[in-house]
Amino acid sequence: IEDRDMLIPPIKNKIRSLIVETGEIEKFEFFINRECRVPGADVGTLERELISFFLKHNKPEKALEVLERRPVDSLDDNLLYVKILAETAKEEKAIENAGYLINANPNDLRCYKAWVDAWISFVDRKQAKPGGEEAKKYLDRAESILMYLKPESLIESEPKLLLNLFRMAVLTQNNKYALETHKHVLKIAFTEEFAQSVIDAADELISFYQRDAAMDLLQAAWKDLPSNYNIPLKMAEITMDTDPETASKILDTILTERPEHVRAFLMWTDCMSRMGKPDLAAGKLIDKLKDPTLDNMIKRQLQAKLELLSVQGVDISSYGYEMQPIYEEPEQGEQESF
Known about the structure:
This protein has 338 residues and is mainly alpha-helical. The protein has 17 helices and no strands. Helix 15 packs antiparallel against helix 16. The two termini are 46 Å apart.
């Protein structure tokens, strides 16, 4: 719409909502830049909205471009700057800046959240805690944050922060806070937004031999996210070696709903082998391999598993099945694995 007289607030709000809903980055940028040129416009608020939109859509570099063309002189701007730093692999600088914000605003929860988010971002990217010369300073700050924030107050208002605090307590081996926080984390209403963080937290618990706590966390998340199969897959992975029967039941649940799920099926065959039932696994593999609609990528995975069972002593020929060479198909775009 080019006629500015037609751009009355209700129409502009509708346009804004439609662009945000569709995630059209260039259109939203154009819309905000045009609004910034309107006499009397609150440019700071509009540009912060644009920065947040870029961050939401994984465009931190564009967010930084907008932030750098204006003075960063408010707490809101500084919080956005810390978030941008963390999302452009400058987590240590983000942690440092967030520390300054905590010192200047000791009663503002957002500053603590910014520090914890940056710390966790470093862990997720590097698979290690922030260290080096600043290791003790980071650890001291982490300890002070864990002492300051009360986990029970964050269950509904800041569930992602609560989960990240739990992860930080586990990784810094603050066992007292981790134990206290664990019971509150289990009360979170889990959403897809932080499903991966749940899996990461489970891995971290396992690394410190906290298997039961990891399973409790995954079970709580699975209850809220029954269609996220990565969560029960992680549960099966954790239990497969020590309790393959329990793992097989978890995988049965997935395969009942998604019989075409290849990873769950292959893990199920591993469970059968561990339970002393390799023949059952071989029979199910052969049943799958007889499906004429199966694409070659999946056939190769299934046949490789069958060959392994053969090496382990299963007589494949007794099923009337012969191993077949599976040739590469010409590339015609990626096919979806089941």
